Automatic annotation (TrEMBL):
Pfam families: Bro-N
Family annotation (PANTHER family): BRO FAMILY PROTEIN (PTHR36180:SF2), DNA-BINDING PROTEIN-RELATED-RELATED (PTHR36180)
PROSITE patterns: BRO_N
Superkingdom of source: Bacteria
Protein name: Bro-N domain-containing protein
Domain Bro-N: 16-132
Length: 311
């Protein structure tokens, strides 16, 4: 229940029905409320209209709430010498309505949820017309403190509306929790599938590399260990070597033969060859395309790792 800057009511004054329960039964929500020093209750019109399905608050107020039951927040609080409540979007120009204005908006609402409350209002009017007054029944259990006021029972229609709304809200809460659990499980399943796909793609890539190597292997007895000269000679047979590609090949071939792999950043190769990083990358891509080298992922510092294909 939101009651910003609620003021104490004059001594001896009390409400037979708790206004929060009363408004909840009427609107289906614990809407914001200001209670003035004289005990009058005022509510943000936008809150009430949103809960009752009035899509145009200004028109709803104009059509259903007389001017003496609606006010601007700054004017209302100024009349009591109060400041504007802080937070919860309490703007100075906020339209607020009295409790009677709220009831008028509820009676104009066509939502089925408002029907029990409207039926109770009709019962009150009928009873007053017939008997001259309407009185709440006293509660079965009364307070025992000396001087305590009489407790009254909540009207049946209002109580039923509150019970129904609470049950509905509990059901919505359960559905929300269930939906969140399902979403978490779905996210876990999706992550597991993605991880499985990544592993499968890695296996496929490894197998393709193996097939390329097998295809390039000559038949017959194993050949001798490669040398820089044999590697460069093999690369000349595999592709039409341009000057830029040959410049890169001469730099990386000795490293591949001696260390078995190349972990040198592209910027380092570019500095040694006088080529741009982009051109070095293109040359390496051409060497990979013709199965001269193949990639083995990346190093710790982010540099690509290349190894020789078998001669």
């Amino acid at each position: 229940m939101n009651e910003p800057n609620k003021q104490a009511r004059p001594a001896g004054r009390r409400e037979a029905i708790d206004v929060s329960d009363f408004v909840y039964a009427a609107t289906g929500a614990r809407v914001r409320r200001l209670t003035m020093p004289d005990g009058a209750h005022w509510f943000p019109a936008v809150d009430v209209c949103n809960r009752l399905g009035h899509t145009n608050p200004q028109k709803a107020l104009s059509d259903h709430v007389p001017e003496d039951h609606r006010e601007i927040l700054e004017t209302l609080t100024g009349g009591y010498g109060l400041s504007i409540p802080a937070g919860r979007e309490w703007r100075r120009d906020l339209n607020v309505i009295s409790l009677q204005g709220l009831i008028l908006l509820v009676n104009a609402c066509t939502k089925p949820a408002c029907a029990p409350f409207k039926q109770w209002v009709a019962e009150v009017i009928e009873t007053v017309q017939r008997d001259g007054s309407y009185r709440l029944e006293e509660a079965e259990v009364q307070p025992t403190e000396p001087g305590a006021p009489v407790a009254y029972a909540m009207p049946e229609q209002v109580a039923d509306a509150i019970v129904r709304l609470e049950a509905h809200n509990l059901q919505l809460d359960e559905q929300l929790v269930s939906g969140q659990r399902e979403l978490i499980e779905l996210q876990r399943s999706t992550l597991a599938v993605q991880q499985a796909l990544v592993r499968a793609m890695e296996r496929i890539a490894d197998r393709l590399d193996d097939l390329v190597l097998e295809r390039r292997k000559p038949y017959g007895p194993p050949t001798a260990l490669p040398t820089t000269e044999s590697v460069l000679a093999d690369w000349r047979r595999r592709l039409s070597v341009t000057e830029d590609v040959w410049t890169v090949a001469v730099v990386i071939a000795p490293v591949l033969v001696e260390k078995g792999e190349l972990r040198e950043p592209l910027e380092s190769i570019a500095a040694r060859t006088g080529l741009t990083v982009h051109r070095v990358n293109e040359c390496l891509r051409l060497l990979r395309k013709h199965a001269c080298i193949h990639s083995r992922g990346g190093s710790e510092n982010g540099a690509p790792v290349y190894v020789l294909n078998h001669l």
